[in-house]
């Protein structure tokens, strides 16, 4: 089974990677695709640099840095994986990776969001869940592991 793990270098990404390894330890035969989606360069960046290759190189290096913690976890467990770094809208890009890589399932960390932000743009994990053609497993953070200044109690009331 080929499983996509969208990662962003945070402890929440490491949590989803460790959860995926628990499935392997329980007997699931899987290989993983670690994916990171970088934002496209801003209009200002395009105007000041005017070098598309430089933008692509910066995005690739940044994406590789974001993938590195999860890659180290999988490498230490001797589990097969590949990496993909892409640029664009996170959901659209991940849907493209699902198709291009022949992914059977996605495991993604759920990010707690405030009510207003969730209503305005939704989360990547929830939008991916809605539009993916394969099963999407949302992994909640461990209590106390919520980023962005929220404690576990606040996150549970806002998520």
Automatic annotation (TrEMBL):
InterPro entries: Rossmann-like_a/b/a_fold (IPR014729), UspA (IPR006016). Pfam families: Usp. Residues 2-139 form the UspA domain. Belongs to the universal stress protein A family. This is Universal stress protein.
